[in-house]
Please model this.
Amino acid sequence: MMTNPSNTASATRSAAAERMRRHRERRQMGLRCIAIQVWDREIETLIRRGLLPAEMRNDLHEIREALYVHLDRTLGATP
Model:
């Protein structure tokens, strides 16, 4: 039985190579991936402004989405 070389190559790609591939894709699109620290009071402000449901205050995905909305509103939506 013959294996597909493209499937074999992607299966053997190291985690570091995959991270670099994603990094290059983001840079080509003009994106940067950064890690930030968020104060509890900033999360509370997102809740007060209606960008984050109070019950989602500990959900990292929901906090990130609320921050995206905040940034789009304050800095302008991305093209």
DSSP finds four helices and no strands in the chain. The chain has a mean pLDDT of 88. Residues 22 and 63 are 22 Å apart (CA to CA).
